[in-house]
Amino acid sequence: xxxxxxxxxxxxxxxxxxxxxxxxxxxxxxxxxxxxxxxxxxxxxxxxxxxxxxxxxxxxxxxxxxxxxxxxxxxxxxxxxxxxxxxxxxxxxxxxxxxxxxxxxx
Length: 106
Fold this sequence. Notes:
single chain; 106 residues; 2 strands
């Protein structure tokens, strides 16, 4: 563990961000979960293999870009309010919700 207090604080903040979502919809979620609730691997948001993603505006990704979102669970669909999700690497399952709890046990 680093001894620099600023680095330690940044790591603690990063850990808190990755553990939960602030809202039901999860539009703000910037964590690092990259598997679905059933354990399927998420597809990268920039990939067209295995599924071609919908053309969500880049501003809908809290990371600032699809590339920065990598293959992490996100919710770029402003009309979807049921939580974070991802396209999957499973050719038989286009997308699936991810298991990211609400912050504070809400």
